[in-house]
C-alpha cells in the first residue's frame, strides 16, 4: 500500500477533546494519508463541520440521508477506508460498538467497516473506570479493535486521573502503525523477545532519587516494531511517560535491582533480549526511610554501591539465545562499543552518540552503529521506528544463524 493510497476515516465523537481530532487529521495528512470524516451530532456541538470540510475538501458524513457524495455513505465510506480512527471515543460510542448498535451515520459506518479500527478514548475518569466501560474495552479488544488508551492528567471537568485523550502524536503514530501492520512481514512470528527500556530511579530517600535522562523511546519503539512483526514481546520498563505499545506485555519497575530481577525472571522464556534500558551503575548504599530534612540532616555525601550488571548476567546465561546491548556514549563511540561487546559477551552492541542532538535521549531520531564480532555497520540518522527495524533485522539474522 503506497502512502498515496492510504485512506483513513476519522470518526469524531462528542467530547471536549473533539478539537484535537483536527490535529490528528493534519498529522495523518502530513504522513501522506487521505482523510475523510464522519461525526456525531454531539461532536458538532464542539467542532463544526466546516472545519473538517475545509481541511479535507470533502463533505462530513453526519447524516445517512443527506450526504452529497453518495446515497449510502455508511457503506461507501466503510469500503473506502483502510483504517477507521475513532477520536475522541466517548463511553457511549464504545458501548454502541460493543453492542453492535447503529443508530446514526457514525455508528452505522463503524458497524459496516471491515478494515482495522483504532479507538482513542477520551472521557471523565469515573466514566473510564466504570465497570461497563472497562467491560466494553475488553470486548472490543477481543474482537481485534486497536486502542490508544487515555492518559492521566487534569480533565476539563477539573477531575484528575485517567481518561484524558492520549497525545496527538501517539494517536497518529498508532494509526500509521496500524496502516503498516497488514503489509508488515511477520518475520518474527513465534519469536519471544525481552526488551528493557527507560531509566532506573535509585532512591536516596522516599522523595529523592538518582536517575538519568533516558526517556525509554528507543526501547518502546523496538517493542512496538517487534510486536508488529509477530513477536511475543515482554517489555521491562523503568519509569517513563510512554504508553505500552499494542500487543506488548509490560512489566513496570523502578530501581536497577527490580529491573534485574524482572529481566532475569523473563529471560528463560525468551529467544532474545534487547537491552536498551539506561540502568544506573550505582545506587545509594543505605537509602533513608524518611524524607531527609536539610535543616538537621545534611546530605554532604552519598555512599554508593554498584548495581548488578543486567546485560552481563543475561549474556552469561544466554546459551543459544541472542542478547543485544546498547552503548550510549559521548566520546570514542566505536572503541567503547567494541570494548563493551567483548566485556559483556553480547552478540551485538547498538552504539549511539548521545552528544548529538539527533541521537540523544528523548530525540525522535537516532544515528546508530551496529557493532558485532564481525565488524561495524554505520547507519545514518533516521526516525526511531526505522532504527528499531534495523535492530530487529540484525536480531532476526542472528537468531536464524543460531537455528
Determine the structural class based on helices, strands and strand pairing.
alpha/beta
Estimated radius of gyration? 24 Å
Main CATH class of the largest domain: Alpha Beta
Give the CATH topology of the largest domain: Rossmann fold
CATH architecture of the largest domain: 3-Layer(aba) Sandwich
How would a crystallographer describe the biggest sheet?
8 strands, mixed
- Order of strands, main sheet, comes to 12-11-8-13-16-17-19-20
User: What is the overall silhouette?
Assistant: globular
Helix content: 25-40%
How far apart lie the N and C ends? 32 Å
The CATH superfamily name of the largest domain is CoaB-like
Number of domains: 2
pLDDT < 50 stretches = none
Number of strands: 21
The percentage of residues in β strands lies in 15-25%
The number of helical elements comes to 13
Describe it for me?
The structure is a single chain. By secondary structure, the protein is α/β, with parallel strands linked by helices. The chain has two domains: about 5-180, 3-Layer(aba) Sandwich (Rossmann fold); about 185-400, 3-Layer(aba) Sandwich (Rossmann fold). The protein has 13 helices and 21 strands. The strands form six sheets. The protein has an eight-stranded mixed beta sheet, with helices on both faces. Helix 1 crosses helix 8 (about 170-180). It starts with 6 loop residues before the first strand and ends with a helix. The relative contact order is 0.09. Its cofactor is FMN; Mg(2+). This is Coenzyme A biosynthesis bifunctional protein CoaBC. Keywords: Decarboxylase, Flavoprotein, FMN, Ligase, Lyase, Magnesium, Metal-binding, Multifunctional enzyme.
Amino acid at each position: 500500500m503506497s502512502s498515496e493510497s492510504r485512506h483513513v476515516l476519522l470518526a469524531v465523537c462528542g467530547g471536549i477533546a473533539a478539537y484535537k481530532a483536527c490535529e490528528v487529521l493534519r498529522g495523518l495528512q502530513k504522513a501522506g494519508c487521505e482523510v475523510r470524516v464522519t461525526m456525531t451530532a454531539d461532536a458538532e456541538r464542539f467542532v463544526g463541520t466546516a472545519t473538517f470540510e475545509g481541511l479535507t475538501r470533502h463533505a462530513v458524513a453526519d447524516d445517512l440521508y443527506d450526504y452529497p457524495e453518495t446515497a449510502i455513505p455508511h457503506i461507501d465510506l466503510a469500503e473506502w477506508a483502510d483504517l477507521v480512527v475513532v477520536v475522541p471515543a466517548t463511553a457511549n460510542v464504545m458501548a454502541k460498538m460493543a453492542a453492535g448498535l447503529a443508530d446514526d451515520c457514525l455508528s452505522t459506518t463503524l458497524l459496516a467497516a471491515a478494515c482495522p479500527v483504532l479507538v482513542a478514548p477520551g472521557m471523565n475518569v469515573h466514566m473510564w473506570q466504570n465497570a461497563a466501560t472497562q467491560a466494553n474495552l475488553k470486548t472490543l479488544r477481543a474482537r481485534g479493535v486497536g486502542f490508544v488508551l487515555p492518559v492521566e492528567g487534569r480533565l476539563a471537568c477539573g477531575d484528575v486521573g485517567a481518561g484524558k485523550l492520549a497525545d496527538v502524536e501517539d494517536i497518529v503514530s498508532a494509526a500509521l502503525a496500524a496502516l503498516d501492520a497488514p503489509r508488515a512481514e511477520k518475520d518474527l512470528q513465534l519469536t519471544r523477545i525481552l526488551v528493557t527500556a527507560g531509566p532506573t530511579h535509585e532512591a536516596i530517600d522516599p522523595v529523592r532519587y538518582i536517575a538519568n535522562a533516558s526517556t525509554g523511546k528507543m526501547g518502546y519503539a523496538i517493542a512496538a516494531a517487534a510486536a508488529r512483526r509477530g513477536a511475543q514481546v515482554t517489555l521491562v520498563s523503568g519509569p517513563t511517560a510512554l504508553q505500552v505499545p499494542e500487543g506488548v506485555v509490560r512489566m513496570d519497575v523502578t530501581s536497577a535491582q527490580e529491573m534485574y530481577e524482572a529481566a532475569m525472571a523473563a529471560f528463560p522464556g525468551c529467544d532474545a533480549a534487547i537491552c536498551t534500558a539506561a540502568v544506573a551503575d550505582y545506587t545509594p548504599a543505605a537509602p533513608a526511610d524518611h524524607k531527609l530534612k536539610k535543616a538537621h540532616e545534611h546530605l554532604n555525601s552519598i555512599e554508593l554501591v554498584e548495581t548488578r550488571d543486567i546485560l552481563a548476567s543475561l549474556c552469561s546465561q544466554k546459551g543459544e539465545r541472542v542478547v543485544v546491548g546498547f552503548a550510549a556514549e559521548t566520546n570514542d563511540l566505536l572503541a567503547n562499543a567494541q570494548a563493551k561487546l567483548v566485556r559483556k559477551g553480547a552478540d551485538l552492541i547498538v552504539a549511539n552518540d548521545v552528544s548529538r542532538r539527533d541521537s540523544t535521549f528523548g530525540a525522535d531520531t537516532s544515528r546508530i552503529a551496529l557493532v558485532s564480532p564481525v565488524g561495524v555497520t554505520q547507519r545514518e540518522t533516521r526516525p526511531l521506528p526505522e532504527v528499531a527495524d534495523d535492530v530487529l533485522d540484525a536480531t532476526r539474522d542472528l537468531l536464524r544463524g543460531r537455528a
